[in-house]
Design brief:
single chain, about 140 residues, mainly beta, 6 strands
């Protein structure tokens, strides 16, 4: 996770299990009652916010795109867009959100990446989206 510029409490990828630079990445987030967003979303029925599920997918996409040989935290990426996003089922404490992102288009000249992103709990699709990331550099 050192390749990502994100840190606790805004790091939503626990482990990368498979990865090929500029092609795809597979990883997961273990969702626990200890995650700080559950105190407010919703105390009576804790559900991982959909926007954080999409953020987790984007972070995994960043891992697929950032240069693994660069020094720690050297790369940045920003949301350029979220399209065709669907939330199929709630993600709750105790779930493992397995994620896969596949690069569908990469414009190296402008540093713009399109990703097909999906998240699963067990074998069930719970979230999917087409993400656009813009790669940046630290100043």
């Amino acid at each position: 996770m050192k390749i990502l510029p994100h840190r606790y409490p805004f790091l939503f990828v626990d482990r990368v299990v498979e990865w090929e630079h500029e092609k795809y990445a597979v990883g997961y987030k273990n969702v626990t009652f200890n995650d700080n967003f559950f105190t407010g979303h919703f105390p009576e029925r804790p559900i991982m916010p959909g926007v954080l599920q999409v953020e987790a997918l984007a972070q995994l996409g960043g891992i697929a795109m950032l240069d693994p040989d660069a020094k720690e935290g050297a790369g940045l990426f920003f949301f350029g867009g979220i399209e065709s996003c669907r939330f199929r089922k709630p993600v709750v404490p105790g779930d493992t959100l397995m994620m896969r992102v596949d690069v569908t288009k990469f414009n190296k000249r402008f540093g713009v990446v399109k990703l097909a992103a999906k998240g699963y709990v067990g074998s069930e699709l719970v979230v999917e989206a087409e993400l656009t990331l813009a790669l940046g550099k630290k100043e």
